[in-house]
Design a protein that fits this description.
By secondary structure, this protein is of the alpha+beta class. The protein has helices at residues 4-17, 23-30, 34-46, 76-93, 98-111, 114-125, 139-151, 223-234, 248-254, 279-289, 299-317; strands at residues 20-22, 51-54, 60-63, 153-159, 167-178, 183-189, 194-199, 208-212, 238-244, 260-266, 269-276, 293-297. The protein has a 5-stranded antiparallel β-sheet with strand order 7-6-5-4-8. A 4-stranded antiparallel β-sheet has the order 10-11-9-12. It has a 3-stranded antiparallel β-sheet with strand order 1-3-2.
């Protein structure tokens, strides 16, 4: 059995990981009885942690928000992740929190152990950010969405699609994906009865929380791969499917997950799905890869390539 101080820290860590716990669940995790859990909860409350009791036959506990911010427990990997995330945010990834991120990062690095500070500094030294202009996202919107994903709560929001009139959406949020330039929300659209990908910067109003829901089976094993497939083709005017005559790993090194979705065919070729706003851009992208390929669709891209070949032949003869 853990000593009292160690048990309190473990209990606090569990309460910070999940929204709510039953008394028996906590007792099982800490190898104590429910009465001991009640006493430990009282001790945490006396230290200023806002632990609330939940109704029900088994009883339960939830770590809520208090008037003051109590100490937050982080393991080594979590501390490094927070520090790196704050550095990224300070570079303008999220609108309006650059200076706040610097202040928070200063406080965090001041108390980081030497071994962790070296890991963070190594990442900073050997990583060069490419600051490109692009849409920014209100951090409050991100925190609301992230909490709804965690707590399995529906969201209502106004959404401005690429084409068409703004619409009202009711969704069951699954998760957020950041591509390096944009934030995407993967969610089950209640009215469409299907999985959808939403650009967070196109959510025009602060999302409102709605009813709790039972989580569904995710649309893919990796939400990042799901967003990659959606963004690489479906959001563009023209979508292309082609076989690249090169190993998947070689093609992956020349493309971005946000520009192309890849599937292996065999050891020497792979299937690519990609998209573009114009046929000329599509042709330029395919030529830029510098790899042999067979184009399967769309037919208009095939005709456009034939037209360009004729034009280039005339230019060479001239």
């Amino acid at each position: 059995m853990l000593e009292t101080s160690a048990r309190l820290l473990k209990l606090l860590s569990l309460l910070q990981v999940r929204r709510d716990w039953t008394g028996p669940e906590l007792a099982g995790r800490l190898s104590v009885d429910v009465r001991t859990i009640r006493r430990d909860v009282d001790k945490l409350r006396s230290l200023g942690y806002p632990v609330t009791s939940l109704p029900g036959a088994a009883g339960g506990y939830q770590l809520g928000a208090g008037a003051e911010l109590p100490p937050l427990l982080l393991d080594d990997d979590e501390a490094v992740a927070v520090a790196v995330g704050l550095r990224t945010a300070a570079n303008g990834t999220i609108a309006g929190i650059e200076e706040t991120s610097i202040r928070a990062l200063t406080k965090l690095e001041q108390i980081l152990p030497t071994r962790l500070r070296r890991r963070v500094q190594a990442l900073q030294t050997h990583t060069t950010p490419l600051n490109a202009a692009g849409p920014t996202v209100d951090p409050e919107t991100l925190t609301i969405i992230a909490a709804a994903c965690r707590d399995h709560q529906q969201l209502r929001f106004a959404y401005a699609a690429t084409q068409g009139e703004p619409s009202k959406r009711l969704v069951e949020p699954q998760g957020l994906v950041h591509t390096g330039r944009r934030w995407y929300l993967v969610a089950w659209d209640v009215s469409k009865q299907d999985w959808r990908t939403f650009r967070v910067d196109r959510i025009t109003e602060e999302p409102a929380l709605a009813a709790r829901f039972t989580p569904r089976e995710p649309p893919a094993e990796s939400l990042a791969e799901f967003v990659s497939r959606q963004v690489a083709a479906n959001v563009y005017t023209y979508q292309a499917v082609l076989t690249i005559h090169a190993p998947l790993q070689d093609v992956a090194e020349r493309t971005s997950p946000m520009a192309a979705s890849l599937e292996p065919v065999d050891d020497h070729s792979c299937l690519m799905r990609t998209g573009a706003e114009s046929l000329d851009r599509m042709v330029f992208y395919l030529l830029y890869l510098g790899l042999d390929f067979d184009l399967h669709e769309p037919p208009e891209l095939q005709e456009h390539i034939r037209m360009l070949i004729t034009r280039l032949r005339k230019a060479v003869k001239a």
